[in-house]
Amino acid sequence: MPLRPLLASALLLILAGCQAPPPVAPTALPSVTSVAPSPTAPPVGTSRVDTLNAANAAFARGDAANASGLYERVLNTPPTGEQAATSSAINQLAHFRAIVALLVAGREDDAHAHVQTLQQLDASAPLARLANQLWDQYGMVGQVRGACAQLQPQIASQAGPTLSTLQALGVAVDATTLCSVPSS
Length: 184
Fold this sequence. Notes:
The protein is mainly alpha-helical. It has helices spanning about 5-20, 50-60, 65-75, 85-105, 110-120, 125-140, 145-170. Helix 2 runs parallel beside helix 4, helix 3 (about 65-75) runs antiparallel to helix 4 and helix 4 (about 85-105) runs antiparallel to helix 7 (about 145-170). The radius of gyration is 28 Å and the shape is globular. The termini are far apart.
């Protein structure tokens, strides 16, 4: 066989192999079980107390990531019409609970930044002292639940008045829930 027809045949075979495959009929996708939508953040303009309660509720559901974001939102929302003591109590709680939520989420550096901020704002404030103790306990036991358990006996005596102030504002928090980790 002459070389030219042989090359032409080889070229045709190569070109045929480079063509797109014929279309394939689409197959049905497996059914996906619907998942309840994650709760949305409170609308802009919501009070700091309502946002704090939404953060606490998210944390109680085990949604540490959403909770920590809402605690940040509380801290980044300027107080409107709050007395200094009220603002301080709200900010202390938001920082403290952000620490717990961030530790649960495995974000130790971010949690430590909140501990440091509380210390810089007022190291003698009740929740700043408790945050420092929590951080120390966490460093010793290596888990949030154990650190909170070690802290629990001091909460009522150290933070009782601050918690009472927050409860009077409508914040859902008490000595037993301040440093608690939801069951997964």
